[in-house]
Amino acid sequence: MPLDPETRQQLLDAIRQFVDDRLIPRESEVAEADAMPEDIVQDMREMGLFGLSIAPEFGGLGLTMEEEALVIFAIGRAAPAFRSMFATNVGIGSQGIAIDGTPEQKAKYLPRLASGALIGSFALTEPEVGSDAGSVRTTARRDGDSYVLTGTKRYITNAPHAGLFTVMARTNPEVKGAGGVSAFAVEAGLPGLSLGKAERKMGQQGAHVCDVIFDNCRVPADALIGGVEGQGFKTAMKVLDKGRLHIAAACTGLAERIIDDMMAYAVGRRQFGRAIAEFQLLQGLFADSKAETLAARALVLDAAHRRDAGEDVSVAASCAKMFASEMVGRVADRNVQVHGGAGYIRDYRAEQLFRDARLFRIYEGTTQIQQTIIAKAMIAEARAAAGL
Ligand code: COS
User: Fold this and answer.
1) Per-residue confidence at 1, pLDDT binned at 50, 70, 90?
2) CA–CA separation, 10 vs 15, rounded Å?
3) pLDDT category, 137, cuts 50, 70, 90?
4) Ligand 1 site: residues with CB under 6 angstroms?
5) Residue 249: which of 77, 367, 369 has the closest Cα?
6) Which of 68, 158, 255, 322 has the most CB within a 10 Å radius?
7) Distance between CA atoms of 35 and 205, rounded to whole angstroms?
8) What is the CA(36)–ligand 1 centre distance, in A?
9) What SS3 class is residue 192?
10) 207 C-alpha to center of ligand 1: Å?
């Protein structure tokens, strides 16, 4: 159920204020310490950010995709590490259970994911399995009332904080591809589950990523998401359809912020006796950034609207993710250029946001994977139209 217009406006105003008053002023502190302050996390819990997408019956805000996109445009203005703190609970860390979980799994986990008491992580990627997600090597062997998981998951966002992992593992070794993969809700702290060391990343300091290692880790059989084997890959794809739209919204919000930074610098900085904003070669950079950001916003809202109407938005989500993540990369790069030497210096946000933005083209499916998803659907459509 969409929010009424007044409540929606109040929510967006509160988030914009939170971003301006609480998040942006603390970007340097978070980046320097590579840690998210607990008082900020507590504010996020109180604002309901961990439960944006979880149904109200489980304690979440139950936002539509369009509303979630509007919220993420606003949050996306702050350095991406802030969004990352709660976003796995909104997307990839909760949606496997929210979309395909049994009623018992939903009742058990969604309320604590919605409140932020529990952090959810999505464990798909492996050392040898990235884009080829159907080739998962982690195994889940049925043994009585349990499954025994063995394998390593790599670059798992929020894993150091997670209390719950959505783990894709192969239950049927006879089936090599996607059909042999199942999804499990695995609680942290089980014997046989351990974490690797936190990775040192190019950007997004304050958001943490590490390996999750399963060494004969026994999980109860009712941890199988949806209670059906062989559905895990499809669960992961459904989760990623939504996640990619969310990421596209985050890219758009960040681009809007970067444009504001770029313009503030350009009207203040003087060269040749004039504000550099007056030079037409720079004006081309401003205008391209503005038009591309507006295009991304429109693409995200259109796909979100269609998802809310029940349409399959797999292709639209890939288009939005591909376009918006590439776009924010260009905008972040132009911002460094407009800042000149200052754009290369740590004390200015331009340098940090340039590094932060780079990840968007990679996670939740690289640009090249989005291209293959889009092209595959186009070819299938053309073949069907041609009767081939
Ligand atoms: N929603 C529901 N089902 C989907 C789906 C979707 N979006 N996409 C694919 N499926 C289904 C297919 O319909 C197919 O079902 P059937 O076997 O019943 O026909 C099954 O899943 C396998 O699909 P497909 O053959 O297209 O799988 P591929 O192995 O070719 O993989 C890609 C497709 C490459 C698109 C997929 O592996 C992918 O998205 N990779 C990137 C993973 C990723 O984003 N990793 C980032 C880390 S996670 S943060």
Assistant:
1) confident
2) 9
3) very high
4) 92, 122, 124-125, 131-134, 178-179, 233-234, 237-238, 240-241, 314, 363-365, 369, 373
5) 77
6) 255
7) 7
8) 33
9) coil
10) 27
